[in-house]
């Protein structure tokens, strides 16, 4: 697969390059990876602070908030779910969305499978942990994929809140292999994979996930802003 720009160590900043004004993005696919909010099985690192029920309720609220922020006619949204049945998902989020079960043992397996199955130009995957993510970021990411092979949204904790590919091909499956998931090494390891593959990379601005008790202030800020 040819790419538009050769890779350099100074990653292009897609957030700075692409204006917030929405641009036509054509046929694009946005994959939202979520877990059904079953108490004790979701947001487990927040259970000491919120309890199992409270952590699951936070997962539910964050997912619903993010869905309201990211639904747009400019891309096809797919919900890639785990931890629940399709019936539970539709009872929760409604029947109008497109649902796909996550397939694979690790997050890397599940991401790779989803990108393989999408088999379209310009595919982006996100989770529901980053509530500061909005449609401007997604537009910027899709626009970056017109010029680059890969786009990443770095998370403050060393992971990423967004990954996008201009087009999936088997060699790019390496981006999801031998990664220390849920650690601060995820972003650096993924960047190294992009370099090894000789692909071009753009990055968005760094945002924070809500994974740990110290991150709850982010959700409190969102709630205060929404109440105004």
Explained architecture:
This is Transferase 1, rSAM/selenodomain-associated. GO terms for molecular function: transferase activity. It comes from Phormidesmis priestleyi Ana. Keywords: Transferase. This protein is an alpha/beta fold. It has one domain (14-227): Spore Coat Polysaccharide Biosynthesis Protein SpsA, Chain A (Alpha-Beta Complex), CATH 3.90.550. Helix content is 36%, strand content 18%. It has seven helices and seven strands; from the N terminus they run H-E-H-E-H-E-H-E-H-E-E-H-E-H. Strand 5 and strand 6 (160-167) form a beta hairpin. The longest helix is centred in the first third of the chain and has 24 residues, at 47-70. It is globular, with a radius of gyration of 17 Å. The termini are far apart. 37% of the residues are buried. Mean pLDDT is 90; it is low at 1-10 and 15-26.
Describe the structure using short key phrases.
Transferase 1, rSAM/selenodomain-associated, transferase activity, alpha/beta, seven-stranded mixed sheet, disordered N terminus, Spore Coat Polysaccharide Biosynthesis Protein SpsA, Chain A, transferase, 7 helices, 228 residues, Trfase_1_rSAM/seldom-assoc, 18% strand
Which structural class best describes the helix and strand composition?
alpha/beta
Give the helix proportion (percent range).
25-40%
Q: In percent, how much strand structure appears in the residues?
A: 15-25%
CATH topology: Spore Coat Polysaccharide Biosynthesis Protein SpsA, Chain A
CATH homologous superfamily title: Spore Coat Polysaccharide Biosynthesis Protein SpsA, Chain A
Instruction: Count up the domains.
Output: 1
């Amino acid at each position: 697969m040819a790419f538009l720009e050769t890779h350099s160590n100074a990653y292009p900043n897609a957030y700075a390059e692409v204006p917030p004004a929405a641009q036509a993005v054509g046929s694009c696919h946005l994959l939202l990876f979520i877990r059904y909010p079953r108490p004790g099985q979701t947001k487990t690192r927040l259970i000491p602070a919120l309890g199992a029920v409270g952590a699951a309720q936070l997962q539910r609220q964050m997912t619903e908030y993010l869905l309201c922020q990211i639904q747009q006619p400019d891309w096809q949204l797919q919900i890639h779910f785990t931890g629940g049945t399709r019936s539970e998902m539709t009872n929760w989020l409604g029947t109008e969305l497109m649902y796909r079960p996550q397939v694979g043992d690790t997050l890397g397996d599940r991401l790779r499978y989803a990108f393989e199955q999408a088999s379209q130009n310009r595919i982006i995957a996100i989770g529901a942990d980053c509530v500061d993510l909005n449609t401007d970021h997604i537009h910027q990411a899709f626009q970056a994929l017109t010029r680059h092979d890969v786009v990443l949204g770095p998370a403050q904790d060393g992971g990423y809140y967004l990954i996008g590919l201009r087009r999936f091909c088997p060699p790019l499956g390496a981006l999801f292999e031998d990664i220390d998931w849920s650690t601060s090494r995820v972003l650096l390891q993924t960047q190294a994979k992009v370099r090894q593959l000789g692909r071009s990379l753009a990055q968005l601005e760094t945002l924070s996930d809500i994974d740990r008790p110290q991150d709850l202030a982010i959700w409190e800020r969102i709630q205060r802003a929404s109440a105004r």
